[in-house]
Amino acid sequence: MYKEEILLIGEMITITIMAFALGMDAFSLAIGMGMIGLRYRHIFNIGVTVGAFHIVMPFIGLIVGKFLTQYFGMLAIMIGGGLLLFLGCQMIYSALFSHDRDSGVIKPVGFGLLLFAVSVSIDSFSAGLSLGMIGAKTIITLACFGMVSMILSWLGLIIGKKVEGYIGVYGELLGGGILLAFGLKLIFPI
């Protein structure tokens, strides 16, 4: 009994560390996204959506991982990187060439929100490919992934919103640069 409790605690610590690692990119990217002047209602919706995708993507990864090879995991990372590059370029273009600040940027609402959520949770898909191999408790793991990424997304979006007020249009450039850099990092790992 005592040994099982220690193993459970060790597994929970491992799952929590993994959830933070997967949620940190959502946090970083949310700072950039928060700089486009979002309302708190949007921040709430974005956090919930990102959290949901951090549950769904590893679950799909678990299912797909049983049937596909490592090649597909790399393809998923490349697609995620491409989405981040697209969003980053869109924000930078809007900041540099659009006189109406909100005209060119893809807002994190509707399809734009889905693009953002997929791009920050694509690494969770890859993690899901390997979750089944370690025998992790699926429901606990997925709930932890979703909760941690949702909280980190909210935190990043709020920080971005606060910083944006101080740096104005340069915030949109910085946010686009952050998205662009993470997209390049996914596509060209060092």
UniProtKB/TrEMBL annotation:
The chain crosses the membrane at residues 6-31, 43-65, 71-97, 109-133, 139-160, 167-188. It comes from the Bacteria. It is found in: Cell membrane. It comes from Anaerobacillus alkalidiazotrophicus. One of its GO terms (cellular component) is plasma membrane. This is Putative manganese efflux pump MntP. It holds the Pfam family Mntp. Probably functions as a manganese efflux pump. It is a multi-pass membrane protein. PANTHER family: MANGANESE EFFLUX PUMP MNTP-RELATED (PTHR35529:SF1). HAMAP family: MntP_pump (MF_01521). The keyword Transport applies. Coiled coil: none annotated. Keywords: Cell membrane, Ion transport, Manganese, Membrane, Transmembrane, Transmembrane helix, Transport. The gene is mntP. Belongs to the MntP (TC 9.B.29) family. GO terms for molecular function: manganese ion transmembrane transporter activity.
